[in-house]
Backbone:
């Protein structure tokens, strides 16, 4: 009768009897330990302010039970007497299974991390799918390389092949990769964000709809979509009308005749702007409107600038429209003339 050695004790039973018994015992023990882990670790993480430890526990929730089973299988296989070939095959199987479970746990943790923080981080939302795919592929690749190295399988030829293949792919997809890395730069540096109103020098202007891995989509005021490659966008001079904040100053030029009292004109402009701020959507009462006698003396007019604040860039159009109506009507009541260019021509006859 073959003896089974277990923690230094000899059990006078053949392996085909002890092996199933040990495996069943380990299944129940692993289940109990996993439940115990969940209970006490959840109590600990419930007191934590960060979500990282919670995500780690969630990632280990399923794989932990299987890892405990694999530990039990490893101990059990060491306890029974197997042929060298069977022992080597069994050890290889346990090692591979352990590696795959750890890779699975790492992928699960990364996926939870991306969902947790990616949804909060607005600019990342359009690229979550791509980042998820790339991150999982990188984790699996690193895990496989580490597993091969631990099994004494040379990874040098594989790394060489990957290097040559990567170079060929980089040359073939040069423009695509350029757009991809430009998209990552835009997401990281945030010169623009989804929802911002931007203007590209010498190009279109509108709201940023999405920042993808290849291109950025922009919706213009006429409700058209403009698709811009990320590489071109990253090289352009961009005016972002929503940074550092959405509120912006509106400068409205006003001209009156030289017969007008400049002080009275300033009072009227401020009064009308303040009155409109309480009645017109998009025109802000604070900071308060004010007037500057700039640019000053023109060829046929006194030139002022009314400065007020609008909620965001597109509000300026309706605000200008309404303010001009109000100012024109008030000037008519006050007898203030709005001049037009005049020229005095002297004719000389020889």
Residues:
């Amino acid at each position: 009768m073959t003896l089974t050695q277990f923690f230094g004790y000899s059990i006078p039973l053949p392996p085909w009897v002890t092996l199933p018994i040990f495996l069943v015992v380990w299944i129940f023990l692993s289940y109990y330990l996993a439940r115990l882990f969940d209970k006490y670790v959840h109590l600990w993480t419930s007191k934590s302010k960060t979500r990282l430890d919670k995500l780690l526990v969630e990632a280990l929730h399923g794989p932990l039970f299987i890892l405990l089973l694999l530990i039990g299988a490893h101990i059990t296989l060491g306890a029974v007497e197997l042929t060298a070939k069977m022992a080597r095959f069994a050890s290889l199987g346990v090692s591979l299974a352990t590696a795959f479970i750890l890779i699975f746990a790492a992928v699960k943790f990364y996926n939870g991390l991306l969902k947790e923080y990616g949804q909060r981080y607005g600019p990342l939302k359009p690229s979550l799918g791509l980042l998820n795919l790339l991150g999982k592929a990188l984790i699996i690749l690193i895990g496989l390389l580490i597993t091969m190295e631990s099994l004494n399988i040379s990874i040098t030829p594989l790394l060489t092949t990957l290097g040559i293949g990567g170079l060929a792919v980089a040359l073939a997809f040069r423009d695509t990769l350029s757009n991809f890395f430009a998209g990552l730069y835009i997401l990281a540096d945030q010169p623009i964000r989804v929802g911002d109103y931007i203007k590209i020098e010498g190009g279109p202007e509108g709201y940023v709809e999405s920042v993808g891995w290849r291109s950025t989509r922009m919706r213009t005021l006429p409700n058209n979509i403009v698709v811009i490659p990320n590489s071109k966008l990253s090289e352009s001079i961009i005016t972002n009308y929503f940074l550092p904040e959405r509120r912006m100053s509106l400068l409205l030029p006003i001209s009156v005749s030289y017969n007008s009292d400049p002080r009275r004109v300033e009072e009227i402009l401020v009064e009308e702007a303040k009155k409109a701020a309480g009645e017109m959507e998009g025109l802000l009462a604070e900071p308060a409107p004010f007037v500057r006698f700039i640019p000053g003396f023109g060829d046929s007019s006194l030139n002022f600038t009314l400065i007020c604040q609008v909620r965001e860039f597109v509000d300026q159009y309706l605000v200008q429209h309404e303010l001009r109506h109000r100012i024109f009507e008030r000037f008519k009541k006050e007898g203030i003339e709005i001049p037009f260019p005049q020229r005095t021509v002297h004719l000389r006859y020889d």
Notes: The two ends are 142 Å apart (CA to CA). Residues 20 and 76 are 10 Å apart (CA to CA).
